[in-house]
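Notes continue from the previous slide.

Worked example: a multi-chain complex. Inputs as given:
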Amino acid sequence: MQDIDIADLKRISELIYQKYGYDFRNYAMSSFKRRVLRIMDLKRFTVEALIRKLTESPEFIHEFLDELTVNVTEMFRDPSFWRIMREEIIPAILLNHKQFKIWHAGCSSGEEVLSMAILLKEMGIHQDVQLYATDLDTNILERAKSGTYSIKNMELNEKNYIRFQGAGSLKDYYREENGLAVFNKELLNNVTFRKHDLVTGEIFNKFDLILCRNVMIYFNQTLQNEVLKKFHESLFKYGYLAIGSKESLIWCDYANRFIVVNNEEKIYKKIKD
Amino acid sequence: MNKFNLNNSYKAVVIGGSAGSFQGVVKILSQLPKGFPLPIIMCLHRLKHVRHGFVEALSLKSVVQVTEPYDKETIKRGSVYLAPANYHLSVELGHYFALSTEEMINNSRPAIDITLGTCAYVFKDKLIGILLSGANKDGALGMKQIKDRGGFTIVQEPSECMIDTMPKSALAITQIDQVLKIDQIVNFFKELDKLYR
C-alpha cells in the first residue's frame, strides 16, 4: 500500500471544495487518510494521478464520494438503542404530537431508516410519521431508496432484529430475489430522500427527532461543533437527538442547550433555544 | 543501562491481542507498577455485538481502571484504554482518539492494524508496541509500521501462546526487538517504570 502525507491530503480536500463544493477540510484526519489511500489502491492511482483525475474528470467525483464516505451499517445496530426508541422516546413524543417528523442525517444505504420504518409499523403509527433521509452521496441515496440489500447481510440484521425483540420476523418485511433482500416498498412510502451535506447544507426543516449515529465520528471537533448547532436549529424545543454510543457532545458549545435523556444510548433532548 | 536497553523518551504503549490473549492482558494489568506514567492503548479482538462486560472484566484485577474512549477523547498519561466493540480505534496527531465504523480489516472491527498503525504514525519512535496471542495476522502490519518508524517492538513468545499465528506473522514481516513471555512483559513494564522515576 502507498502512503500519502498531510500536505497532499489537504490539497485533495481543497481541490474538492473549490471545484465541487464538498467540504472535507474538517474531516478527522486518520479516517480521511485511510479512505483516500483506499481509493488510490482500488483505482491503482498515485497521488498525482488521483489529483489529475479529480481535476479533469468531473464525473469521477460521484464514484470518489461513494468510496470516500463510509457506508458500512446494519439494521437495528445496537438493539438496545432501538428498544429505548420504541419503549421511551417515541412514546414520549407521542404524548404531545400525534404526527411528527424524524430526520436521518447521513443515512448512507438506509438501514437505519428502514429499521425506524419497521419499528413505527410495529407500533401502528407508520403513517403518522414523516421521515427525512439525507446523505451527500447520491449513489448511496439511490441504494437507500431501493430498500434492497445483499442477502449475506441479512444474517446480522436478523440477529439484531431478534435482540431488538421485534413483533415478528424480519423476513416478514422482505422477499428474496437473486441473492437480494427486497424490502416491501410500502415501508418507505413515508420517507423523503434528499441530497444534503451536513457541512455545507442549509437548515431545511424542523424535527421532533434527529438520528445521526456514527456520522460525526468522521468529523473533527470544529466541525462537530458546527453540525451540532445545525441540529439544534433543526429541532423543535424538547426534540430529541440520537448519536452513536461512543460519541459525545460534552465539548461542544451548544452542549448546555441539551440534556442527556439516556447516557448509555446517547440520546439528548433540546431544552433551550 | 537496563537489560532491555530502554530509555525514558517513550510516550505511549500499544497492545494488540486476540484469541488466548485475555489472561495475559489481565496479568500485565494486574501487576502494572502503581502510577505507571504512559498511556496504554489496547486493541483486543472481541465480540462485535457485546458492548458490555469486557472492560469490566479487564478492570477487575487491573491496577488502573480500563476505559473505552469516546470519539475525540484526549489521551491522558497513565490511563489504560480499550478499543470499544464494533469500532475501529485510531489515534490522531493531536493525541486524541478517533473512532470509525469502516469496513472490517482482517475480519475484525476493531482491527489491531488500525490502532497500531495510527499510533506508529503519531508517536513515531516514542512508541512501544506489544502483540500477544492470536489466531490471525491482524497486527503484523501494524507492528511493521511501528518498527519502520523507529518504535520498540515486543511479541509474546509463540511457544507460550494459546494460538501463535499473530506473533509469528509479525516476526515474519518485521524486526521484533524482544520475544517475551507474559512474566517477562510484566517485568518489562517494571523496568520501564523505573526510568520515569
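Summary box: DSSP finds nine helices and ten strands in chain A. The domain at 79-270 of chain A is CATH 3.40.50.150 (Rossmann fold).
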